Amino acid sequence: MGKKIKKEAEPPPKDVLPRNLQRLNTMGAAGNLYFDPLTIESKKVATVVLMLNSPEEEILAKACEAIYRFALKGEENKATLLELGAVEPLTKLLTHEDKIVRRNATMILGILASNNDVKKLLRELDVMSSVIAQLAPEEEVLIHEFATLCLANMSAEYTSKVQIYEHGGLEPLIRLLASPDPDVKKNSIECIYNLAQDFQCRAMLQELNAIPSILDLLKSEYPIIQLLALKTLGVITNDKEARAMLRDNQGVDHLIKVLETKELNDLHTEALSVMANCLEDMDTLVLIQQTGILKKLLSFAENSTIPDIQKNAAKAITKAAYDPEIRKLFHEQEVEKCLVALLGSENDGTKIAACQAISVMCENSGSKEFFNNQGIPQLIQLLKSDSEEVREAAALALANLTTCNTANVIAAAEADGIDPLINILSSNRDGAIANAATVLANMAMQEPLRVKMQNHDVMHALLGPLCSANTVVQSKAALMVATTACDVEARTELRNSGGLEPLVELLCSKNDEVRRHASWAVMVCANDELMAVELFRLGALDILEEINLSVSRKNKFSEAAYNKLLNNYLSLKYSLTGYLSSSNIINDGFYDYGRINPGTKLLPLKDLCLQEPSDLRAVLLVNSKSSDVSPPASMEDKSSDIGYGRSISSSSSLRRVSKEKTNYPFSTRSGSPTEDKLEPTSGRNTAVSKSTTKEKGSSALQMNSEHS
């Protein structure tokens, strides 16, 4: 490893090279002529540009020298030279017979190529082959330096990358990485770094065996060269074949030497980025593990005082841990301890990276168990962070840790995680809301925790997520309703907070998961008749019916929700289908409105009571506690507490009708009890008699059946 010198805040401009000026001042057209440098003012530039068309070599050399000095003074002068038309004659001089003229023209173009407009013109003039020709081994170092500088400037844009690649520029650039001149090395590796962004160029770099030459640059004494080499390796090793080549050329050893050298701490971040790619390769990882390098790496990350290094180490673990075999190896090396330590960092970026690594590592069951005691309490604390990004990352880790793991669910609750998780439901970040809802849904699977969540007003907190425009949030919120609305109190709280309306709207979602979870939630909410009636009022039944008619949109939950709604709203089920099943038990409050068509709303009993009497068919109400009249002896098994009239205006009128008709529990359309006995009032065969009980107040439909 070469001696490390103090790195400047920014490298000096590529075109400020005093030693080159000194060379130029002492050389003439024939190589042995000496002359003082020309000084040109702005008003004389046009004249000097015209000199570029001179047939005399000495004039050309002097004109190039003057233009070079002028161009060095800044971007404004470069733009002036472009306007005066200096670029095109300079490109022609690249192929001039005289070596000095050719060299001087190359130097000027190397400087001018940093200007975007000049780059555009150079592409149009198609000079790439002429510039690349200057990289030939027989050319002097100074020409190599400025030709590579020109290519480095040009290679920042895609079109130029293609031209360099197509004109065979990669091979001479790789060769020049071994140049004795540091400027040539720097320009060459910078150009290669830019080219490596393209996958075709990366493949060619592997074919040309560029990695050994790039690794050698890590020994340079110049920080900028070392940095560019590491950046280039970071791009190249995204490909599996390049990682294998790096391993075969002892690249890991080079990287470890960089990491172990404190004086090179400004290179540690980039070295870790390359190492992160190496960790994705199982063979390389095994090598690192067997040689003890992995433990060194983890210790280095854990003990470092540089936030970027810790953050990049966690990112490296995250990236590699997506592979199940690598996760297993990481677990064996106790990577979890390092990640838990990083959770305590003062840097938010490091905390976020550690949370993300835990999220991936907990796919391994052993890691999931490890974080039960070490990790979950720290993550709960991060839920209270001032940074929303930190809260989101912590919630993500907890979501993955608590999924299908009861022990971790309990650990999160015991660490007082319920309250901060519910608070996150009102976050401005959709990801944080979705993650927190997932954790709370996992907690709600445990009844004691579900009760605790309800005490924290969780159903009211769900209103915002249910109204979100983000489908992931919608899905997680609906899932949370499905897992928490398991008792009457929770369902009542959801209804009172206005949560049923957005829940029903989610049934119409085009997203399959949202629709499925919303159907599940509706099924749970429809477990009692009051909720079923409210859901029907909001149109849930119609939506579910439409969903179930579609082969692509229906799901098991939508079918179950539809049936649950009907089974917990028997008055509606009877009016829609004309029958009840053996499991449907009629209770007080059941009423027979008559047959209605699908899509027709069944008015609630409260609304029916407010209607004025009319000539419409009568409504049958079961209400065993509202009548004091005993049934006739001949109707011992039939209820005398059934009021039957043309319409029901109020419960008191229903009782009054029942008392007036003591001999006949039916009111009739014509006033004749006989007619009413002979004619079925509902106009259909009510076969439900077999499914109803014979207790007092529950046999009204059985009587209807006898009349049919």
Unreliable stretches covering 5 or more consecutive residues: 1-42, 627-708
Give the neighbour order of strands across the main sheet. Answer: 1-2-3
- Look up the CATH topology of the domain at 1-236: Leucine-rich Repeat Variant
Helicity, as a percent range: 55-70%
Distance between the termini: 103 Å
Cα-atom Rg, whole angstroms? 41 Å
Rounded mean pLDDT is 81
| CATH class category label of the domain at 1-236 | Mainly Alpha
Structural class by SSE content: mainly alpha
Give the overall shape, derived from the CA principal axes. elongated
What report would you give on this structure?
It is built from 45 helices and 3 strands. It has 708 residues and is mainly alpha-helical. Among the domains are: 236 residues, Alpha Horseshoe (Leucine-rich Repeat Variant); 103 residues, no CATH class. The N terminus and C terminus are likely disordered.
